[in-house]
UniProtKB/TrEMBL annotation:
Protein name: Cell division protein FtsX
PANTHER family associated with the record: CELL DIVISION PROTEIN FTSX
Short name of one Pfam family: FtsX
Topology with respect to the bilayer: Multi-pass membrane protein
Biological processes annotated in GO: cell division
TM regions (residue ranges): 21-46, 165-186, 256-277
UniProt source species: candidate division WOR-3 bacterium
Length: 294
């Protein structure tokens, strides 16, 4: 069968049901853009979690009478420690003023420096998991002269919980969107089959092969899915640009979103078309029965 004939029949079927084809592709685009938004959200949460791991620091607060050089040496010798630096009380107060900005006058109102001296610890990139941070925190806490340790693992843990939750939501939305888009493709192709049932009967009577009958409908479902996917990708890009106005660091995984929209649209279009085509023989038979009853 010639490809030109397949394309001609496909376009003829689309033009015959132009309204339903465009409407179905629009609904598919709305479904797919929802998935795209969650992909963008998940991608940025993963980036944020990785950045938090790369920049994680521990603070070991020490007693005033402790030997700072000895503490720094002992902490720096621990596995996973990239750097350890002593931060005296005066420097800690200066950093606090800089962080507060215009609100630094609140610090100036204090009669004395309330901040304790500390050792700022930078962790190696391979030692930033929650279990390794907890183990390192315990080791530092046992060093004489250390009064308290803050590791920031709570923030990393919250980010991981949020990321895992969003990933589970992604899977659920993927299943729902795929089923919805597949059903839309099925309905559209089945409608096209019903509108051409007499033509299909004649083609089968004159010896047309299954490929001759089925391929145009299969191409129609695929085209509808890819059109919906392309529209969803455009909407996802617009969403990203709006989100970047509020959060400038928002990233757009172009390849992943494009592959998800076009791939899922095409796959659901093919699957929906195949399901509808399995009823290609029953549809004409039902019509013949109805005609005979009349």
């Amino acid at each position: 069968m010639r490809p030109s004939h397949i394309l001609q029949e496909t376009f003829r079927s689309i033009s015959r049901n132009r309204g339903s084809f465009v409407l179905a592709a629009t609904v598919q685009a709305i479904c797919l853009v929802l998935l795209s938004v969650f992909i963008i959200l998940t991608w940025n949460l993963v980036r944020l979690s990785e950045a938090a791991r790369r920049n994680v620091e521990l603070y070991a607060f020490v007693a005033d009478q402790a030997d700072p050089m000895l503490l720094v040496q002992r902490i720096a010798s621990l596995d996973g420690v990239a750097q350890a630096r002593y931060v005296p009380k005066a420097e800690a107060l200066t950093e606090l003023r800089a962080d507060l900005g215009s609100d630094s006058t609140l610090v100036d109102a204090l009669e004395q420096n309330p901040l304790p001296p500390s050792v700022r610890i930078t962790v190696r990139s391979g030692f930033a998991s929650l279990s390794e941070l907890a183990a390192m925190e315990q080791k530092i806490q046992l060093i004489p002269g250390v009064t308290e340790v803050w590791s920031g693992k709570e923030m990393v843990e919250r980010l991981e919980v949020i990321t895992r939750t969003v990933m589970f939501l992604d899977i659920g939305i993927l299943v729902i969107v795929f089923c919805a888009v597949l059903f839309i493709a099925f309905q559209t192709v089945e409608s096209s089959i019903a509108s051409r049932h007499h033509e299909i009967q004649i083609m089968e009577l004159v010896g047309a092969t299954n490929a001759t009958v089925r391929l145009p409908f299969l191409c129609e479902g695929t085209a509808q899915g890819m059109l919906g996917g392309a529209a969803a990708f455009v909407l996802a890009v617009l969403f990203h640009r709006l989100a970047a106005v509020v959060i400038p660091a928002t990233a757009l995984p172009v390849g992943i979103v494009l592959l998800a929209d076009l791939g899922l649209g095409a796959l659901s279009g093919v699957a929906g078309s195949l399901i509808a085509l399995n009823r290609i023989h029953r549809a004409p038979q039902a019509v013949v029965t109805d005609d005979s009853e009349e």
